[in-house]
Amino acid sequence: MNAGDMDTLGGVLVTQGTVESYDYGIYERSGFRFSYTRVVGPIDLQTRIQLYRAILPHTIAPNYFGILDNSAGYENDFSLDAIKLLDGMLVDHGIRTYFGATITKDQGYSKIVKLAQTNMDTVGLDGALIRVRDRAAALDFIHEKIAEAAAVLP
Questions:
Q1: Which terminus of the chain has fewer Cβ atoms in its 10 Å neighbourhood, N or C?
Q2: What pLDDT, in 10s, does the model give residues 35-75?
């Protein structure tokens, strides 16, 4: 992430960092935080766990809003057991509502989204996951979900 991303992502940069295979930034918008993570290397369960450990302390529970930018096309194939483990990390951190957008041109990723959405329902996470082809669509989705969450605040 670089300073120029702040204006184009529609939020104020809170923190940024790098873990194996990912560069991430945490942004604040309307009192909520969202992550924008760019995939920069091969992905597997262990690298995703490292990412969650880096990002989750900066979220504001019970909401998680995140964009995973895999426009570079790195392999991203997770089993149901891996998805369950990651969802468990979210729940353990107090997350109850999860909105995520993945930027990828991989048509097969829709199957992972469907599997993950089904598991969210099983573990009691509200929200939605989508696969999009570009950053603008991902930002539109996340900004819309943040606006909806902000509208119901007392």
A1: C
A2: 999 999 999 999 999 999 999 999 999 999 999 999 999 98
Identify the CATH number of the domain in which residue 136 sits. Answer: 3.30.750
CB 115 within 8 A of CB 83: yes
CA distances for 66 relative to 55, 121, 139, 154, angstroms? 10, 18, 9, 24
- Residue 91 one-letter amino acid: V
- Check: pTM over 0.90? Answer yes or no: yes
Residue 18, φ and ψ in degrees, nearest 5 = -140, 135
pLDDT digits (tens, 9 = 90+) for 102-120: 999 888 888 888 889 899 9
Range of the domain at 36: 4-151
Residue 92: what residue type?
A: D
Q: How many domains does the chain have?
A: 1
Backbone angles phi, psi at 56, to 5 degrees: -55, -35
Structure-token match 């930002």, residue found: 139
